[in-house]
Amino acid sequence: MTDRRLKARIIPEFGLLLACCAANFAGGLERRVTIPATLDWDSFLRLARFHRVQGLAWKALAASAQSLPPNVASLLAADARTIAAVNLGIVAASAELQRAFAEAGERLLFVKGLAIAAIVYRSPMVKMSWDIDLLVDPAAVTSAGEILARAGFRPVIPPMMDGLAAWHAREKESVWAREADGVHVELHTRLAENEALVPSLTVASPSQTVAIANDLTLTTLADTELFAYLAVHGASSAWFRLKWISDFAGFLHCRTGGEIRSLHESSQALGAGRAPAQALLLADRLFGSLERAPELRSELQTDHMVRLLCSASINQVTSKPVEPTEQAFGTLRIHWTQLLLMTGFKFKAAEFWRQTRKALRRVDPHRFVRLRNNRC
Known about the structure:
The protein is α+β, with helices and mostly antiparallel strands. Helices cover 53% and strands 9% of the residues. The strands form two sheets. A five-stranded mixed β-sheet has the order 1-2-5-4-3. α4 (54-61) crosses α5 (70-103).
């Protein structure tokens, strides 16, 4: 996509959202957001809510609240308070689960959510989260389910614990809910739908501990592994939600060109395919993430498929704020990009068959997509 086409797609309201996200990145000098003279504030609010970045937007704009229409300022502030309150509940539940798994002698890693927010943003509690993502050993998934059940969580997808191991043999996650506080858990036994992507990322992968709040620390993937995972996760949905590429760009913020190159090269050894290149070019187009790595930018742009994937993701993230499942052709706009994430006919055939099986296996193949998109 040319710079002219990109500029045409980024309306002022979306451009302000980009600036708000970037103003929250940890490290470096704090940025002040410049509000355009002419802005459709209702459109801005709709975009912020669709992309799940209301907390980031309000954090960046609160100091200039007098420049916002009162109703928009009030609604953004209310959304930010709700996000913070939900995150406090997630913090408490995360601490509880971390203790429960430790007492049971089971390993786990926290992925996405507040674990990445603590690395990426100045104020982690402004990042919108709705659930807790746990990665466990596939051999321990039944034990993990029992721990969740003792903590008051019930299985939602699948709707019963019987056959949990069999479910995870074909699905990467199950979804759990606790009625008492509304907290949800995604229990992962692998981190990609297609087993050919990042197959070595497991609960035994290199890890790091991050501070979340007060005395709570959570263990997540180490930087190299986290880079690969964030790229693959975003690529699985063609990056249609701004919050995902904001996380990725924030993760790169203040890193040197050499560090970014090293992360990309390591991701190839981990089996991330074209997903990191797609993510890097997208983050660069939206946030200038490769300004310190111009040679890497040029190298990535030589791959036609990577350019195609980047263009597709730009089209997704800058489209009208409508859920993919509610658009014409639904998630087909996303699924075709997944076929290009690795080279070779074998991967494409396996990915096509995986998508076909998933559609045929469920009466409503978009049920989980809707559930996930409505809360992620």
